Amino acid sequence: MKKKPEMKLKVIAFWSYKGGTGRSLACANTAYTLARMGKNVAVLDADIDAPGILYKFLENDPEKRKNIWEKEGWIELLWSKIKGKKDGSKKKSITSISSIINLKNQTGKIGKIHFIPSGNIQSEDYWKIIGKHRIWNTFLLLSDQEQEKLQVSKKFLELIEKTENPDLISKANKICEESPEILTSEEKKNIYIEVLDEIENDLDPKPDYLLVDLRSGNNEIQEVITKLWVDKMVTIFTPNEEQVYQFENEEYPLFLNYEFKVVPVMTRFQPTLFQYVQETVERLMKKFNWTEGYLCKIHEDRHLELFDDIALMAKKTDIHPLIYKQIRDDYIDLVSNILNEEQISSDRWLPEKNKIEEQIRKDLDINKESIPVQAALFINYITGELVNEGDNSRNISFRVDTFDSLLSFFREFLKKSLPFIKPEIIESSFKWTLETAGMESGRRFGRTLMKLWKDEKKKLSETEKIKYWCDFDSKVGWGTFIFEIKTNKDKINEIVIVNKRNPFASGRTEKDVDLCPFLSGYIKGVIIEILNMKEDSIIIKHDINDCIRGRKKDVDKGCIFTINFSDQ
After folding, report:
1. What is the full DSSP assignment across 67-102?
2. Is 289 exposed, middle or buried (0-12, 13-18, 19+ CB in 10 A)?
């Protein structure tokens, strides 16, 4: 028996071959997004050995979490129905085990989330039910051959009861009492359908969607729910070789044999792996004939991982604005894929997805283009990564000490490798290399700022551009930028920039200051782009001694750069 065809409830299961993929987090974010859209959602925790998705919703409310976890769940409900089939005992109801979760930060119209726990994990009875001696017979749908063997075992038990040995009779009765194998697979199927029917019709308000957080790996629960309930399977894997191989060669091909639709998701996506991921995505698209955007990618954020936060419920102050926007957009992309009913191969798939995404953003009151200018780039002080909004990647990854050591080594390498060239020529070439590299870095950064200003439709004066740049650059690892602009008839003819507390220069000796040429080129490169100037029209003066002494009282061993502009 399959799921009732007239059933309106849509069942979406979240599954992963391995644990630690962010499966429960994806399920929770989907539930929250659907609720924000005004949909009523039921969330069922089917990770029976390690239930925990409740924590995603109530991480700051341990008392409410404790109360729900101490309630009986769908495992006890299922067990009561199995026992009731045999001995007529009272069956539990879905309303007695479910709870309404009041979401934090909710505004305006919002749907309800019914939470259905796996069971009372504080109870010894719960762990007995899912113990090895019962779970196989309780949850596994048996083949006819296997069922026949169990019926033979049942007849054997009946024969034992006819003996006069009280110990054997007692054991036989206990086995019959505790073992649900006396039910046929068809009877078990009907019980699962009965539970699903109660979820759809008895909960108030009626849920539009049932989200099931499955256990990782292949197991009895996953098999039964997959066969009887699921309309769509969200299968999640991380971009490591083992999981990609498993997904490509076993998981996805297996799911193609089922009637439900598969929504593949790559989580824990770090942009530093962009090339590897891109090649993997292209291979999967070609192999399985996927259309563009069919594989969702959810970026990684340590805050969400450490605190199990739902991205769309997290305070914006908890996550950097750029990462918040990126992960928020990732989950909107996932939900639009889940709600899309078009066939993958259809020309309507991508247009329909875009239409759904637009509706989600409207329901969530989210402007797709909104992103603060100061989030163009930022430095992750834990990893030392510099994130570039220009291509949504962490494309520069270094620490100050590592970079400085590399430059020092490179200088010594040149001196030892080219003993026949005068030291002053080597030093001059070394500084030219640093300045050129700095200029290219500055120009890229300048172009990123220009793109953001264009996207934000900001019309800035030259002075405002300099201010925006210095204010932002003070936060990304180059030190604090203080500027002074001198104008002549509203035309900038000189800019004095002080790089205060420069991490490369502060506290060094005159011989040890390597990155002043790099920083000089960097400043020049930024100004070329944001003021639309020619390279030869900018002259930067910088005295290395300024980095050692600090020429002004408000500068503690900072670098001072004076930028003059010649007539263009």
Report:
1. HHHTS--HHHHHHHHHHHHHH-PPPP-HHHH-EEE-
2. exposed
Cα 69 from Cα 491, distance rounded (Å): 68
Rg of the Cα atoms in the chain: 32
Are the CB atoms for 105 and 313 separated by under 8 Å? yes
The residues, any chain, with a CB within 8 Å of residue 441's CB and separated by 6 or more, are: 518, 521, 522, 525
Is residue 399 very low, low, confident or very high in pLDDT (cuts 50, 70, 90)?
Answer: very low
Q: How many angstroms separate the first and last alpha carbons of the chain?
A: 81
> E strands of 161-302, at which residues?
209-214, 232-237, 261-269, 296-299
Nearest to 351 by CA among 265, 291, 295: 291
What does each C-alpha distance from 434 to 523, 539, 549, 564 come to in angstroms?
A: 13, 17, 23, 21
What's the CA gap between 38 and 482, in Å, rounded?
49
- Alpha-carbon gap, residue 494 to 543, rounded angstroms: 16
Whether pLDDT at 161 is above 60: no
* pTM over cut 0.70: no
Q: Is the distance from CB of 117 to CB of 58 less than 8 angstroms?
A: no
HSE-CB of 453 using CA atoms within 13 angstroms: 19
Q: What are the φ and ψ backbone dihedral angles of 527, each rounded to 5 degrees?
A: -65, -40
Q: How many residues does the chain have?
A: 568
Q: What is the pLDDT of residues 457-491, one digit of tens each?
A: 888 888 888 888 887 776 555 566 777 888 776 67
Best CA proximity match to 210, nearest among 339, 370, 44? 44
